[in-house]
Amino acid sequence: MMYFSAIIIPLIISIIVFCGLIENKKVYDLFCEGAKDGIKMTVKMFPTLIGIFLAIGMLRSSGLLNYLSNILGNILKNLNVPSEIIPLALIKPISGSASMALATDIISKFGTETRIGMIAATIMAASETTFYVIAIYMNSIKAKKSKFVIVPAIIADIVSIITAICIIK
Amino acid sequence: MNYLWPILILISLLFSIFRGTIQDINNSIFTSISDVVTLSLTLVGNMCLWCGLMKIVQETSIIKFLNKLLNPILKWLYPDSKENKEAMKAISINTISNFLGIGNAATPAGLKAMEELEKENMNKSELSNSMIMLIVLNTTSIQLIPTTVIAIRASLGSPNPSQIIIPIWISTIVGTLTGILITKILLRRRKI
Q: What was the ipTM of the complex prediction?
């Protein structure tokens, strides 16, 4: 399995280049032409990233998230939800790097095969950094009303976290 | 975003005054900014790599193959945009990249799709139905092989790192289906 995950990206690149070759395309010229778009996209994304990271950084360092997760943890304890994973569930939708650090911490503290460790790993993989994705995608077009799209995205996140908690015993 | 962003900032500030964590907030502002610069440097490389490869994909028959493969699902998910060839091409690449767990390739394709969808969007002040579906699916994203998490588990000494795949599949599929269902319901109500 580890071998599979190591080979997948080199394999995809090779397949793409190979197909281009047998179809007689100027693969290198095409590649360079496309790569230019990558710079444009990143430059366009940069201001959004600054904005998002600023707000998320302030939110995290203010201690508000910890405060909320303590309250939530106490409420959910009765429902067989381990309180250790609440901070992860809260931070996962807003910050990829912070949740990665937190998940690694939880898994190494409780062990890879424990219930908490398994739930943390599942939460990490089962969804994307919702707010980040929404901000990046909204930014690619002119400013629009965004409230509508947040609803299904957040509900989907909550449902997949609940599912993880329910199926891992 | 124009409401959410200032609310996040103001609430954080108020809470930290209340809690006495002003120094932490101040530090976080500077770390956040330098984090973005570091992130963007990695990002720009990845974006260029995958945009370049995507260009080759679009010029070869790979894209026709992907389109044919995904067409039945995409037609159902994006009924308003099935005639928009360029957008559907980008959406196909985005979907496959998410599925294979190459987030770096999914983002440029997804943004490209947004631009194409913008061209056919009648009311520029609002997101079109297809845009909403695209964003929701990118926030939930079904992944075939969750490579990052498997790598973390392996590095922490798990005897069987990939055992986690089944619970991940179940929870991500349930989450994604919920997302699709709610989006469909909301979109239907919006029409009426």
A: 0.84
